[in-house]
Amino acid sequence: MYCQGKHYQKGRKKMKIDEERAKRKLTQAEIEQLMKNREECQYIKNVNEGEELGLPKLTAVRKIIVDQDHMGAEDLTIGYAVFQPGEYHEAHAHQECEEFMYVISGRIVGGLGDGPESIQQAGDIMFMPRGVEHWFYNPFDEPQTHIFVYTRASLSKAGYSVESQGFKQIGEDVQKEQKKRY
C-alpha cells in the first residue's frame, strides 16, 4: 500500500504542481488510477466510514473518523455529526482539550459557558475553549451536519466529561460500557 504509516511523508519526492497541471483535464485512465490510489490510502476516509460511539444524553449520530485508534493521529480527533430535528447533546466539557466545529449544513442552537444561546448555521465555525461547558440541540425541521475537532488524539485524552448516567470521563472502561448500552 503506497500510503502507509509514518513512512508516507519521509523521503517522498515532492510533486510539482503548477497552473498547467492544475488546469489540464484528466483522462478516464488517470481518474481510475487516482481512485484506486484513494482506495488504497489509509489516510483517506469517507465520513460514513467512521466509528459511531454512543454517548449518554447524545441522541445525534456522531462518528469518529480520525484519532489515535483509527488513523494513528498523535495530536487530534476529527469526527462527523448529524443532528436530526429534535436531537441534542447535553451540556458537557472537555477538560484536557480545545474543540471546534464547522457547520456543513442546516442550523443548530448551542451555548457556550454562561453566555447566551445562538444559532450556528452552514459555514460557521464555533470554538470551544478547554474546560468550558457547551451544548447543542436541533429545534429546526431539517438535519444539521458538522465536523468537530478535538486537540487530543482520543476522547479519553480530551478529558471528555458528560454529567449523566454516572459518566464523568470517556475512557476505555466507559467506551466499553457505552458500546453495550447503545
Q: Key terms for this structure?
A:
single chain, about 180 residues, alpha+beta, Jelly Rolls, 6-stranded antiparallel β-sheet, 5-stranded antiparallel β-sheet, 4 helices, about 20% helix, about 30% strand, globular
Averaged pLDDT: 82
Briefly, what CATH class?
Mainly Beta
Q: Name the CATH superfamily assignment.
A: Jelly Rolls
Named CATH architecture? Sandwich
Q: Which word captures the global form?
A: globular
Structural description of this entry:
With 182 residues, the chain is of the alpha+beta class. It has one domain (50-181): Jelly Rolls, CATH 2.60.120.10. It has four helices and eleven strands. The longest helix has 13 residues, at 28-40. It is globular and about 55 Å long. Mean pLDDT is 82; it is low at 163-169.
Summarize the structure.
The protein is α+β, with helices and mostly antiparallel strands.
